[in-house]
Amino acid sequence: MQHVWSSRYTFILAAVGSAVGLGNIWKFPYITGEYGGGVFIFAYIICICLIGIPIMLAELALGRRGRQSPVNTMQQLAQEAGAHPAWGIIGWSGMVAGCLILSYYSVVAGEVMAYSFRAGSGVFNQQSVDGVKGIFSALASDPEKLLAWHTLFMALTILSVAKGVKGGLEKTVVFLMPALFIILIFLVINAMGSGGFEKALHFMFTPDTDKFFYARNELGQYLMDADANKIFTWKPMMVAMGHAFFTLSLGMGAIMMYGSYLNRYVSIGKMTLVIVSLDTLVALLAGLAIFPLVFANGLNPAAGPGLIFETLPLAFGNMQGGVFIGTLFFVLLFFAALSSAISLIEPTVAWLIESRNFRRIEATVWTGTIVWFIGLATIFSMTGTTLRDILQNIFSFIGLGDIELKHSFVKYNLFQIIDFFTASILLPVGGLLIAVFAGWIMQQDSTENEFSFRKPYLYTLWRVMVRYVSPILVAIVFLNIVGLVRF
Ligand code: TRP
Predict the structure, then answer these.
(1) Residues 345, 371 contacting (CB under 8 angstroms)
(2) Is 384 helix (H, G, I), strand (E, B) or coil?
(3) Which residues 6+ apart lie within 8 Å of 484 measured at CB?
(4) Of 13, 62, 64, 67, which one's alpha carbon is 20 to 30 angstroms from that of 37?
(5) CA 361, CA 163: separation in Å to the nearest integer?
(6) 152: how many CB neighbours lie within 10 A of its CB?
(7) Angle at 347 between CA 53 and CA 451, to 5 degrees
(8) What is the DSSP letter of 23?
(9) pTM of the model
(10) Which residues of the chain have pLDDT under 50?
(11) Residue 169, class by beta-carbon neighbours within 10 Å (0-12 exposed, 13-18 middle, 19+ buried)?
């Protein structure tokens, strides 16, 4: 039986739930500050318009036309267009990407859950910088604790997905998303009174063109060429594009899956605008909730997981009502993560049901268990194990003794490798293929029908975007990321 969303409202909540996640609340505020505030936001919005919106329209249209999991949708649409069934690869790579992303997403979400309790217990009160660092490293270096939280998060994800679209997914997002918005608005209002609001506005919105256009080293100093001129870099542009993909959950069939449950009469164009606007709004509000506290406490809006797990707890520990606000913040982050997690496994679950005759509960438990297992790789990474450690251990086990591993790649841990492989390779490639398929392979009638835009120029605009603009831009990012071209 084909599921359909109960209403367009629940579809919007589910799609926004997928889009709004750790990416918005943790990553966006930081990269915005890092790459020049207002200029970065401008570049990001351009990417959302030129890549995000056209590809989201394509995913929703493909999904609704195929009405199945991404693998079967793609195969069917390929057949319909007289193309090779190998286009099903979009669905396959999407399932792999979804499971891999969820494997680390769940571990980080587990840390977020742990932090809800820590914040609630008041351990951050009056802590020093070293104190909060110690609390975080105690968690990150304790594999059993990480495992327990990861297991709990996966169990909650399985529970939400196993009950089906109407009984599970919808019920979960109908509760989570409004709660998330209320908490977020409350946190922004709280941040306005913290004393750091103006500095935060300045940090986020004042265009700093130098930070956007010129290269810096790890210490934040500008690199100079022989004539003492700053060196131009494309990296912030690339970061903006990559983030546009990740934050809108594009490139792996999650949105296609949600589109397949969409009623025939809903306007895909309007839905896309609502989803994209809400996702961007949440990202901006998250920055306005976080940075004022950081500045009010004279802290550094630094990089990495440190912002959420070290800097913010320090701020919570040293402000009025910090126990309450801190707990709310981590609960918010947990809600955002859970509604994204659901969308990461739904394509695989749906495929198992359709093509392998699984019952939904079996499909969910199997997929969840595999993801849980892959998550162990991230847990070991958190505790400091790099690829070098693993390889050296294997080599010495098979009797090759101490081989020196020189390649710089081995200094990364499995978490970083999985993150790079999914976010920087599978998603852009998936998005590129989706754009090419929708723009070049599918018949014009099929897509035109699916959108039923009132104004004909909107369709033409989409078609130009999806045929030329988005694929070329994505190809540039992708080639740049894998290092085949360097700007
Ligand atoms: N969009 C989510 C975030 O910003 C993460 C996410 C959920 C995702 N589903 C996805 C990313 C599918 C890529 C593909 O955190």
Answers:
(1) yes
(2) coil
(3) none
(4) 13
(5) 7
(6) 15
(7) 35
(8) I
(9) 0.92
(10) 1
(11) buried
**Whether CATH 3.40.50 fits 18-481:** no
CB atoms within 10 A of CB 239: 19
Neighbouring-strand partners of residue 232: 214
Report CA torsion sign: 387, 388, 389, 392: positive
CA of residue 224 to ligand 1 center, whole Å: 37
Ligand 1 atom closest to 250 (CA): 14
Burial, 42: exposed, middle or buried (Cβ in 10 Å; 0-12, 13-18, 19+)? Answer: middle
Does residue 297 contact residue 319 with C-beta atoms inside 8 Å? Answer: yes
List the residue whose alpha carbon is closest to atom 6 of ligand 1.
249
The CA 125 to ligand 1 mean position distance, Å, reads 33
DSSP code per residue over 257-309: HHHHTS-TTS-HHHHHHHHHHHHHHHHHHHHHHHHHHHHHTT----SSTHIII
Give the distance (Å) from ligand 1 centre to CA of residue 356: 26
Query: Rounded CA gap, 311 and 414, in Å?
Result: 25
Output the pLDDT for position 307.
Answer: 79
- What are the structure tokens assigned to 280, written together? 């961007």
Spatial distance between the Cα atoms of 460 and 357, rounded to a whole number of angstroms: 41
Report the alpha-carbon distance of residue 463 to residue 84 in Å, rounded.
22
Q: Give SS3 for 487.
A: coil
Given a contact cutoff of 8 angstroms between Cβ atoms, the answer to whether 274 and 67 are in contact is no
Tokens representing 342? 């659901």
Task: Map out the domains of the chain as residue ranges.
Answer: 18-481
Task: Give the pLDDT confidence of 252-276 residue by residue, as tens digits.
Answer: 999 999 999 999 999 999 999 999 9
Contact between 36 and 207 under an 8 Å Cβ cutoff? The reply is: yes
CA 298 to chain centre: 29
What is the per-residue pLDDT for 1? Answer: 47
Distance CA 28, CA 245 (A): 12
